Amino acid sequence: MQNKMCDERSTWDVISKSDDFKNNHPTNITSLEPKFTFLHAKDRVLCLVLDTSGSMDSENRIERLQQAAGIFLLQIIEDQSYVGIVGFHSYATEIQKLTVIESEDSRKKLKNLLPKIASGGTNICAGVQAGFQSGAWMYSIQNGAGMPQVVTITVTSRAADENIPPVTVNAHLNQDTTSYPKPLIIFAEVSQGFLPVVGANVTATVERAEGQPVNLELLDNGGGADAVRNDGVYSRYFIEFLGNGRYTIKVSVQGKDGIVRLTTRKQSHAMYIPGYVQNGKEMVRSASNFLYKATKHRVYFRDVKILLPITWNSQPNYQRPSTQSYEKVKAEIMANVIIANPHTQYGDDPYTLQYGQCGDKGRYIHFTQNFMLDDSLIQLYGERGRVLVHEWAHLRWGVFDEYNDLVPFYAVGNTYEATSTGLPDTDCNFFPDQNQVTSTSIMYTTGLPGVVDFCDNKTHNREAPNMQNKMCDERSTWDVISKSDDFKNNHPTNITSLEPKFTFLHVKDRVLCLVLDTSGSMGSENRIQRLQQAAGIFLLQIIEDQSYVGIVGFHSYAKVIHELTLIESEDARKKLKNLLPKISSGGTNICEGVRAGFQVLRGDDGSTNGDEIVLLTDGEDSGISRCFSEVEQSGAVIHTIALGPKAAKELEQLSSKTGICEHCIDLIISHVQSLGGLQYAATDKLDENGLVDAFTGLVSGNGNMSQQSIQLESSGKSIASNDWFNGTVFIDKSVGKNTSFVITWGIDTPEMFIRDPKGKLYRNGNFEMDRVLFTARLPIPGLAQVRF
């Protein structure tokens, strides 16, 4: 065959003339030992990069593309592959991020997303670059045990740049409790710092003690439960109750490419600007007098707390805050004013983030630096104290504006009326006459000196197409305000001095104690192990550096497991994690646990003011009310986690006893809020990650967002023997620092694979294993890859 195929040439003649032997001369090599590398084939990762330029509209090309690519997606691409889609013409658009092919539905979903319209030029490089750009981290976990087991994965990260805030989501309900079957409203505030993120895909998952979880798409369209369109607040009614009980809610957010845009603009650190404080005090003094008259001698600002950022230098007259916080979380908001960068939609306009129903409290009042310091803006917006009263009515009493910039006039018979009192000019713009004889309404304008009252039932215009009429069923603002809790048994009084008392509160590093139930019932449903796993994640990844943390265990009595420890190294975190309780026995005495927690918290400065307790319990305790008074007087914040269906019904009352500030306003420098303790619940369903979610939600409230841990993924699944659990985690450019993947299991260590966007593969040997807690942790060094 050699002679036949090579024209009778010798084998060495053919070999020596191959490319391998060009300029390849004999050498003396001492070791001829080969280097062996093992390459393990994994599931396919593929992106369709499809031309959608104008020329694709000819010769029926775009339709043929859909047909051929559709066949590929429905019939050719293998199960467990990852597929994304990019369309390009003059520029590229990411149509779909990587999606795992695990069902017929996932194939059909991708097929239906194939491009249908052709236009523009052709930029192939833009398409290829977009195909590389997914930023997807993929995980695959195989259960090697001989029986099914539950596996969970949690991924957390921190801000990539301390000067650029990360994108965060904060979930809220319109009320903490309801009576079945009255609906609840789920809200999700998606923001980057104080800038709203619009155009996102937001999904709420409601987990119930019985039955399957319910997924709801939350909308920011100004319809249904959503009050204002494109304000970064996504909403939806929830009505799918199975009966009374505890329900847990978590929210996930993904961007819609081509719509969502994140800022990379650096935010200035909080600094001491005398004008903030001085002008703020003058604003509140003026507002106190104006509010007293507007509420018919019933309400004024008596106590004012100014919460100063941790970055400001301490002064002798600064006090430590108790239940005030910078954290943007669900709270019993008594007062909340922030001074921050201009809003992308409103600029320097003062506004209140308000997305509840009529009479519901708002989230916060937003003033800009320019509004506080530039006196020339007074002519535009009105005197600052009057503006504060207008916004305060939004925030505190849940009333709405009585103007409508989009509909300045409305028809009454054959004539047109302005939405409020005034004279239209020939261009149909509305400019209020400065010389008004009417005294209403504060919710229409703050720029007219003669306007000093809220409209009441005699002066209210029910026909005007404004937000107050829409949201409050045509009720007047004073009718809504006067029926709020603030005005119950609140009769007019003559007060000689309306001067507020100002207190400066300076944020300090976090001081926290874990108070953990170790009673006998924690031995059931794998609870004590799940506690160790979830609290371990909190200690290793969530709690911020320079915080102080202690641990208390309690059953029939309480035991201090460890006094306050400064979190200043990885070793300090691991030491605390290894001390988490492992044995359960005895009854449940929650008050003993709380008192021991207070004892630990006093270890730094002798006080519990502003400190935090994280209280986890699964048991009933009829004596919990015995320590309500101590909790109220402590000045501490108590976060509660109810584990399982039998946790004490009074548990939520403990957290609601903290964070309540009656008859006060907190004027807050930078971004600050007032809150009570957070309330969480976790079911005993092992394939749900509720307990981990509760602990990962306990981020700091000290205003330093670069230190806050952001949860990127939280998922769990019961996997059959030798079956797989696959998923994708997308890391956007605002995060990526201190990224960690944590995997937990219940029986035997699974096979774990993590692939970064460049294709680097991490396996079991790369994880930090804890075979006692059945936990594996993969910290990603440096900044986690976002793209190629």
From TrEMBL:
Q: What GO MF annotations does this protein's record show?
A: intracellularly calcium-gated chloride channel activity
Q: Would you tell me the protein name for this molecule?
A: VWFA domain-containing protein
Q: Which GO terms describe its cellular component?
A: plasma membrane
Coiled-coil intervals, chain numbering? none
Q: Which domain of life is it from?
A: Eukaryota
Segments traversing the membrane: none
Q: Which InterPro entries match?
A: CLCA_N, CLCR, VWF_A, vWFA_dom_sf
What is the species of this protein?
Chiloscyllium punctatum (Brownbanded bambooshark)
Residue ranges of every copy of the VWFA domain listed in the record: 511-695
